[in-house]
Amino acid sequence: MCSNLLHEQELIIDAPFEQLVSMENIFLAWQKFIRGGKRKKSDVMIFERNLERNLFELQEKIKTGTYKHSLYDTRLIRDPKERVISAAPVCDRVVHQALDNVIKFTFETCYIYDSYACRIGKGIHKASYRLRRLLQKASRSNTRSVYGLKCDVRKFFDTINHEILLRLLKRRIISPGVLQIIEHIIKSFEKTPGRGIPLGNLSSQLFANVYLNELDRFIKHELREKYYLRYCDDFIILSHDRAKLLNLVPKLRNFLKDALKLELHPKKVVVRSWRQGIDFVGYVHKPWAVLVRTKTKERMIKKVNEKNINSYLGVAKHADSHELTQLLKNII
User: Fold this and answer.
1) What is the distance between the alpha carbons of residues 325 and 312, in angstroms, rounded to a whole number?
2) Which residues contact 68 (CB under 8 A, 6 or more apart)?
3) To the nearest 10°, the Cα dihedral for 116, 117, 119, 120?
């Protein structure tokens, strides 16, 4: 009886790995990966010429533990600020997607409602609309002053601690096979020894949310802040008491340092009133309007063309920007 129970437990533990390496999951990962026009890229076309062979070989390597992550292609982009993107080869990105298929929803039940980056049904625009609602609540429908403490984690992706990240992932994942792949992906990149995950990996988005979920829980459950939301490493806390918000800063700084080995960006800790305008996820919130950030608006006017006009109009649509919309259309 005891032996049967032990065997059943082993099967349960191995089930996520069996799901990860199943051919159904590998092909699903490929289908998700090529969405959004990736099929036209040269490295993707080369991989697709022998698609079945490449995917079966990839499956076999993962199954047998011989899979090795390849080197990253690092490039500098401006969007508009400079960022270093580290892109993995096609086969590795398929692995990242296959892993995401299996473990992503494992962590969804852990997250707070007001975490908005890289989650189904969330995103920048939902974060902006949610901030508007929270400002209304915190100000009691604009009958009292409300302030926003906005913070940013300094060099977040570059300074994520591998050891802490693995420990957090192991709280919810017990499959040795899945953990082996996760550890391999994490250790495939370092900005400094034992630190950093690459901008550009699908898996990095998941890892970032798992890591900063600790901050979310600290703010919601330890500090008991009611009006809080986060998008990636940018977060904001609302209160009618400006002094209280300023007093939170050292507590946030100490938690990030002690628990997560991270730092608040010293130049991006800002307290502003709603009337002054609270800038978050590209939009400036004021009691009478939501506006597109000035720098974003200037860039749109300068760079608008027939290819990006619909994207720019989509940004303007989520703000009170009738004049900007007409100006962009007139330029084209």
Assistant:
1) 8
2) 61, 184
3) 70
Q: By the 8 A CB rule, do 237 and 270 touch?
A: no
Backbone torsions φ then ψ of 46, nearest 5 degrees: -65, -45
Q: In this predicted structure, what is the pLDDT of residue 56?
A: 97
177-216 pLDDT, tens digit per residue, is: 999 999 999 999 999 999 999 998 999 999 999 999 999 9
For residue 8, pLDDT over 50 is answered with no
Residue (of 150, 134, 154, 152) closest to 142 by Cα position: 134
Q: Are 210 and 169 in contact (CB under 8 A)?
A: yes
Cis peptide before 80 (omega within 30 of 0): yes
**Helix ranges, the chain (H):** 2-21, 23-33, 42-49, 51-64, 90-108, 124-138, 156-159, 162-170, 176-186, 202-217, 242-255, 294-303, 309-317, 322-331
- Residues linked to residue 192 through DSSP beta bridges, in sequence order: 195
Largest CA distance in the chain: 77
Structure tokens at 226: 């009611």
Residue with structure tokens 């494992």?
106
Q: What is the pTM assigned to this prediction? A: 0.90
| CA nearest neighbour of 263 among 169, 160, 166, 168 | 160
Q: What is the pLDDT of residues 48-71, one digit of tens each?
A: 999 999 999 999 999 999 999 999
With contact defined as beta carbons under 8 Å apart, do 207 and 197 qualify? yes
